[in-house]
Amino acid sequence: MCRSIKTLRPPAIPEEATEDDIRAAALQYVRKVSGFRAPAAHNREVFDHAVNAVAAATADLLAGLEVRGAAARRAG
Questions:
Q1: Does pLDDT of 8 surpass 60?
Q2: Which 3 state secondary structure label does DSSP give 41?
Q3: Residues 38 and 1 sit within 8 Å (Cβ to Cβ)
Q4: 20-37 average pLDDT score
Q5: CA-only gyration radius of the chain, Å
Q6: Which terminus has fewer CB within 10 Å in the chain: N or C?
Q7: Closest Cα to residue 13, out of 75, 74, 76, 56?
Q8: 3 falls in which pLDDT band (50, 70, 90)?
Q9: Taking 60 as the threshold, does the pLDDT of residue 21 lie above it?
Q10: b/e for 27-51, b at 16 or more Cβ within 10 A?
């Protein structure tokens, strides 16, 4: 399942990751860790909260990463 999570930073992808890319990766991570593809109704709230938290942490990570040489590669 985690093989579906792709690298979300340049140069692995040509442009910045979208919110949809980040959310899809977070969903795959939470599915893998929890062992549930879709949670039961009584677990939905905590499952959704985890996806939101992982997505937010991923967005923060990507925003803070410094990819050396990326600007030079894009300009060429």
A1: yes
A2: helix
A3: no
A4: 95
A5: 15
A6: C
A7: 74
A8: low
A9: yes
A10: bbbbbeeeeeeebeeeeeeebeebb
